[in-house]
Amino acid sequence: MKIGIPRALFYYQFYPFWKIFFESLGHNVILSSPTNKEILKKGIELCVDDACLPIKIFHGHVADLMGKVDTIYIPRIVSIEPKEYICPKFLGLPDMIRNSIPDLPCIMDTELNLYRGKSKIFDYVFKLGKDLNVNKNRVLVAYYKALKTQKQFEYQLTRELRIPQDILNETRQIQKDQVLEKKPSHIKVLLLGHNYNIYDDFISMGLIRKLRKQNIAFITSEMVVKKNILEGTKKLSKDMFWTLGKKTIGTAHYFLDRKKIDGIIHVASFGCGPDSLVGELIEKKIKRDYTIPFLSLNLDEHAGETGFNTRLEAFLDVLEGRGYIEDNFSTYG
Amino acid sequence: MFWKDVDILKITFPHMGNIYIPLKTIFENLGLEVIPPPFCTRRTLELGVAYSPEFACLPLKINIGNFIEALEKGANTIIMAGGIGPCRFGYYGEVQREILKDLGFNFEMIILEPPQGHFFELLNKVKCISNKKNNSVKDIVRAIRLAWKKALLLDQLDMESFKTRPIEITRGQTDKVYNWLLQQINDIRHEDNIDNFKTKIIKAFSNIRISDKATIKVGIVGEIYTVLEPFVNLNIEKQLGELGVEVSRNIYITDWVRENLLPAFLKPKDHTKMLQLAQPFINCFIGGHGQESVAQIVNFSKKGFDGVIHLLPFTCMPEIVAKSAIPRVSQQYCIPVMTVILDEHSAETGFRTRLEAFTDMICHNKEVNDFAKVHSRN
Ligand code: SF4
Ligand code: SF4
Predict the structure, then answer these.
(1) Which among A246, A291, B129, B291 is most buried, taking Cβ atoms within 10 Å?
(2) Is A280 in contact with B321 (Cβ distance < 8 A)?
(3) Handedness of CA A142, A145, A151, A154 (dihedral sign)
(4) Residues B326 and B196 in one domain
(5) Cα within 13 Å of Cα(B142), Cβ side
(6) A294 plus A176 within the same structural domain
(7) Which regions of B233-299 does DSSP assign to beta strands (E)?
């Protein structure tokens, strides 16, 4: 069977797992095209008006797969960490797709819900297995194989400090990142935001590409090990129940406290619920306790690339200026 | 603990419709001073908008306005509800505390996290808040019971007013009676006086002179805060009433209390059953009242309503998911649905016109249908 996977949302987090899992069970995995104008247009056309950009784009990717595959995999991702959620739109994603896209092929909307504990992952894979009509033993074999690949992927992110884009696009020549430790003289930026925004070159208007071009070293929460993120979240007066929000704020606190960075860029989708609060908390913390340049970028389908570039440039100018002054001081001091 | 250093606790909380009455009752009966925020006005909104994150949802902003105005009046302790997600409401309190701190206010914020099955936790918190007053558990239970009974009366009050407002002969009669009763419920001090109040409400409304004009029936569904707070929903219930529409809503104050402050086993069973109506469109809980909004549209259609209005604050996540289902639901159950997105720029003027257009459309549909029926009979 040809299983279509939209190259959007949690593709950037779980694709290695999904791919190996389905392939081990003898299926073909087909990805939608990288996000492009056509996909965006389709997404806007199909999706309910008020959704955020990544959700609209997801609709476009589903449309892109239609006619090319036998089934589309659109999991209902309720929770990937105990006692946490992603966001209401993730909970309702398969419903939104069904409500908004006519003439859909069959959809696999298996629920992934680890709210009550990590071991619930088995409910999820067995349910997947059931939908695909394979017995539990084969499912387990496929699961462990997929898990291994997923672990490898995560290792590459956190240890080799690579970004998902480069690992996932095997075809593209692998680019060693200008990561913090390796080039200490560089300006270091903490790039915060949901993985499906910052790593999608189209959505983020090539943000990573642009940083690389300007020789700015950056780090993202995907490159930070969980332990450090958790350390960063310890300061919160209430545990945060959004996995992505927690990751963002934990990373921010961790690096702010260690003064390891020169600036922060926070990328959020316009209308993103969790980020409207998370962004505010980070910004307040920075304003109160630190003096570090902070750039908040809001993405939606109307955002123009020129304005985006101008703001990015201005921010980088500030950073570079600062680096220069500090260098001067140290020479004389 | 902090309340030892504060001389007198002056408690406040956010507005949401009439919920201030039962809340006030609880704290006052425990001997605490309460300073409710002034009713929401333009200023409340402006303060809220000025100091809240730009993209936060509207309820958070109005809460901020409420808090600022109450603190200005001398309140020093804010009581706020918490939550466990997935929606933003559960994290409101945390963000609001930071905002108010940055503004330099001196206050404490007590966030009541949902007891998740432990009703006694709630009792304990209330006990902590009022510990200076030596209230026994019995006193607390009594205060809560009185407040609960008031909440039930308030819901009844709303329901009665929905019935008479569209057909009152002298415009404004219903509002007069409503406000008079509201004041009385507010003033009740003892449980003894509350039990016969139900009949009093019914009697008071039956004194309003009404016509036998035919009304159309419209249900109101959506995000709870926008449904319950008239300032935010531009007085939709009153406006519709004046247009000759009998309204009904999906959520009342008591529902909110049940959901947010009481353990799961106290929730009515038919609720789960009702939610099943949403399943073909929204298959699981998605946070807030998203699934419920859809289920209620089906429910209203089954009950023979002529239309439904769906309210949500701009960027409200669960209701956006619900909105994606509305075209299908509306078509399948042959019921017109109008979605109204509310934000700080919503204004009453244009709104009235939209409501009129919607009701006209419903009346027109009705006529066509009736006409068809008459003809098919002949
Ligand atoms: S961008 Fe925000 S609102 Fe949109 S799906 Fe992601 S978490 Fe939810
Ligand atoms: S239900 Fe809507 S308005 Fe309420 S907190 Fe959630 S997103 Fe905000």
Answers:
(1) B291
(2) no
(3) negative
(4) no
(5) 13
(6) yes
(7) 245-249
Q: Which of A89, A236, A248, A285 is most worth mutating to test chain B (most B CB atoms within 10 A of its CB)?
A: A89
Residue B172: give the domain boundaries: 137-213
Q: What is this model's ipTM?
A: 0.91
Distance A52 CA to ligand 1 centre (A): 6
For the CA of B59, the nearest atom of ligand 2? 3
Asked if B86 lies within 8 A of A100 by C-beta distance, the reply is no
Q: Per the CB < 8 Å rule, is A288 touching B102? A: yes
- Whether B293 and B325 map to the same domain: the answer is yes
Whole-angstrom Cα distance, residue A322 to residue A319?
Answer: 5
What contacts B307, CB < 8 A, 6 or more positions away? B216, B217, B218, B219, B335, B336, B337, B338, B358, B359, B362
**Which ligand is nearest to the Cα of residue A245, counting in written order?**
1
**Mind listing the pLDDT tens digit of every residue in chain A (333 residues)?**
999 999 999 999 999 999 999 999 999 999 999 999 999 999 999 999 999 999 999 999 999 999 999 999 999 999 999 999 999 999 999 999 999 999 999 999 999 999 999 999 999 999 999 999 999 999 999 999 999 999 999 999 998 888 888 888 864 444 555 444 455 567 899 999 999 999 999 999 999 999 998 889 999 999 999 999 999 999 898 999 999 999 999 999 999 988 789 999 999 999 899 999 999 999 999 988 888 999 999 999 888 889 999 999 999 999 887 554 444 343 332
Last residue of a domain, one of A95, A122, A156: A156
